[in-house]
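Morning run. Coffee first, then this:
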Amino acid sequence: MPDFDNNNPPRPPLVQIIIYAIGQYGWSLASFGAGSLLVYFYMPAEDGIERFPAFFNQGPILGILTIVGLLAAAGRVLDAFTDPWIAKMSDRMKISGIGKRKKFLAFAVLPFALCSFLLFFPLINAPSIWNVIWLVLISILYYISFTMYLIPYNALIAELGHDPKDRMLISSIISLTWIFGFSTGFTIFILNGMMAESGYGYQESFQYLIGAYSIIAFICMCFPILFLKENKYAKQTEEVSEISGMSSFFKLIREDDKLRIFVLSDLTYWLSATFIQMGVAYYISILMGKNGADSTLFLGIALVCSLLFYIPINIMVKKFGKKVVTLIAFGCYIIVFGITGFVDKLPLDIDILFYFSAVLAAFPMASFGIIPNAIVADLIYENEKKTGKNQAGIYYAVRTFMMKIGITFANLIFPSLLLLGKSIENPTGVRATAIAALVFCLIGMLIFSRYDDTITEDKVEIPDILDH
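And here it is:
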C-alpha cells in the first residue's frame, strides 16, 4: 500500500498531466481506423480510382443494411454488458502501489493496438464469408480491449483533477492530444496516395500505414502505464457497493437528471460527428469534386484553427458557462453540415465554402474536445458530495457507452445511406449522410438546451499552466 493519503493527494504537476495526455493521443490514433476508415476500406467511394478489392458482398442486406455496417455494429452490442461490468471492476479495484486504474490499462493496451491493425487485414483478398467471420471476431476483441483501456483511463480525469483548477486544464490538454491523434490518422489519405504513386498498391500501403499507426499508438498508450504516478496524485477510494455493474449503470442514469440529459445530447453529437469522420473523404471527392487527399487539408485547417480557440473557449466557459458554449458549438456544426450537404448547390465558389467550413468546424471541434469531459468530472464530484462515493468509472462508462451507441448507429446508417448513391454522377447517398448529421446535431442541441449548468466548477478561474 502507498505510504501517503489517497484521500488528500497533492495536485499533479504539469509534466504528469502531459504524460497522462500522451495516452489519449495513443488511444485516439488506435481508435481512428475503426471509427473513420472501416467504410472507406470495405465500401470505398466510386470516384474512378480503384483502391481496394471487394472483401465481401457490397450490396444491401434485408433491403436497407450493409455487411460493413452490421460488422461495425457487432462489437458494440457486447458493450452493453462489458461497459458497466468493466467500470464497476475498475471502481472496486483495490488501491495498490501503482494505483488501481493502471492495472486495466496494462492488460488492455496490447490487444487494443493489435486489433486496431487486424481490423484492416482480412484473411482472403477476395469476397469470402471467412472475411466476415474474421472481422466479427476481431471487432469483438477490439471493442472489449478498447473499453478496458478507455473507461479506467477516463476515470483518471476526475481523480487527477480533484482540485477544481485542474479539471478544465486536464480536459483541455487531453483534447489537444486527442485531436493530434485524430489528425495523425487522417494523414493516411495523403500518405496512401503518395505510396501508391511510388509503386506500392493502395491496399498494401494502406495496411502498412495502419500497422505503423498501431505501433505508435501502442507506445503512446504505454506512457501513463509506465510513467504516471497514479498512486501519488490521483484521489481514489475503493467502491464497496454490492450493486452489480449493470444495476449501478442504469441506477445512475435513472437518478442523475443532469447526466441523463448530457449523455442523450452526447449520443446525438457522436452520431453526427461520426458521420462527418466517415464521410469527409466522400464529401470532398464526390460533392466538392476535389482530390480525396484534400480531406487531410480540410482537417489540417480545422486542427490549426481549433488550437487558436482553446484559450477563448476557456474564457467563454468562465464568462458564460459550459452550456452556452456547447450550444454555440452545436450551432456551428449545424451550419457546417448544412454547407457540406448542399455545397454543390450553393451560389458560392466551392473553394470559399471549403475553407469557410474548415475554419467554422474548428470551434466545435475544440469545444466538444474540452467541455464534455469537464462536465462529467463536475457531475462525478457533485455525486460524490451527495453519496460519499467515488463512482468515476461508472460515470465515464455511461458516457463511453452512449458514445459507442452513437458510433454504432452511425456505422449502421451511414453505409445504408450510401446505397442511394456514392458516385460523382449520383451523389444522393453522400448528400443524405450530411443532411442526417445535421438533423442529429439539431436534436442534440435541443436536448442539451434543457441541461442545468449550475455547477460551481463554472465559476473557477481559468487554470494557469504556470500554476504547476
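Strands lie at 60-61, 65-66. Good start to the day.
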